[in-house]
Design brief:
single chain; about 300 residues; alpha/beta; Rossmann fold; 2 domains; 6-stranded mixed beta sheet; 4-stranded antiparallel beta sheet; 10 strands; about 35% helix; about 20% strand; globular; binds adenosine-5'-triphosphate
């Protein structure tokens, strides 16, 4: 089962499923090599962390995984399927969902309506089974009708039920990101990518998000969480990858990665071997590692 006591549109990931695998990905954007030969795996039932300073290439790698950006080289597999050349829509259909660092701001809708629309879209697109055309049509209609009923459940799970009737454009950025998470969960994902989900969240919501991510992993979802703040990602992930200048410079259990001299050099400014792989000048200045917003 995936996504949390929510009805599933796909079979649960089998224990033998390999999850998401990214290999040798290189991305060039307007003369900048944003990602250089990056590789990572996100197995079902785990939270995988992806940290790196601003400009390290985290969002670009998420874009490659979700099909929003074509890499110059490299591959993306989900279980046995090679998704490298497939469109974003096909990847979404196969169960890859994500949140964005800059959440979508719907001008005319409430938070609840935006989540309901996502749930209806998923109900319309997923395979409901059924032996005859009529069976399938009836099941799809029922699922679309039921989608509205899931909105409260999804918002409650994210801890933002009280924002259901607020215009999406008016809620604080952290809440807008959580609304994006509710929309992603509406798709009952097998793989969930979160880009900077803790940004702008007060401590109370940040802790609730950590619990939610662990719960999703326990339900079999392959969770990839990207961020530049070390602590929240360290606290929640089973395996951590560190991107620096577009390269994965360390990967492994969080405690080991944190102690790695290359990571300490990249993050804490300590002298270390990483000084030889700085991002190109076009990457621009990096901000200091931020701490969490107090509640
Ligand atoms: N549209 C673009 N045009 C030019 N350069 C880009 C573009 N998008 C990304 N880049 C460059 O690619 C590199 C990686 O950017 P990316 O946004 O993936 O990093 P990031 O780790 O997600 O950082 P941040 O947390 O600041 O978004 C940076 O050098 C960035 O300047």
């Amino acid at each position: 089962m995936r996504a949390a006591g929510l009805r599933t549109g796909r079979e649960a990931p089998m224990s033998t499923a390999q999850g998401l695998r990214v290999a040798d990905v290189t991305v060039r954007i307007r003369g900048v090599t944003a990602v250089r030969g990056a590789a990572l795996t996100v197995p079902p039932g785990t939270v995988t962390g992806l940290i790196g300073p601003d400009g390290a290439g985290k969002t670009t790698l998420c874009d490659v995984i979700t099909g929003l950006r074509r890499p110059a080289a490299g591959t993306v597999h989900l279980d046995d399927a090679d998704l490298t050349g497939s469109a974003a829509r096909e990847r979404a259909r196969r169960g890859i969902a994500r949140t964005f660092q800059e959440p979508e701001r719907c001008r005319s809708r409430t938070v609840g309506e935006s989540v309901r629309d996502a749930a209806r879209r998923h109900a319309a697109e997923r395979d409901h089974g059924g032996r005859t055309v009529r069976d399938r049509w009836t099941r799809r209609r029922e699922a679309q009708r039921d989608a509205g009923a899931r909105v409260g459940e999804l918002l409650a799970r994210d801890g933002i039920a009280e924002f259901a009737d607020r215009p999406a454009r008016e809620v604080p950025p952290g809440v807008a990101r959580l609304a994006g998470l509710a929309r992603a969960l509406a798709a009952e994902p097998a793989v969930l990518l979160l880009d900077e989900p803790w940004a702008g969240l007060p401590d109370r919501r940040a802790r609730a998000l950590e619990v939610l991510l662990r719960d999703l992993a326990a339900e079999g979802v392959a969770v990839l969480v990207a961020g530049h703040d070390l602590e929240p990602v360290l606290g929640v992930c089973d395996v951590l990858h560190v991107l620096h200048g577009g390269r994965v410079i360390a990967a492994g259990p969080p405690a080991e990665v944190r102690a790695d001299p290359r990571v300490r050099a990249a993050y804490l400014g300590e002298p270390g071997p990483v000084t030889t792989c700085r991002p190109s000048a076009a990457a621009g200045p990096r901000r200091a590692v931020r701490t969490r917003t107090p509640s």
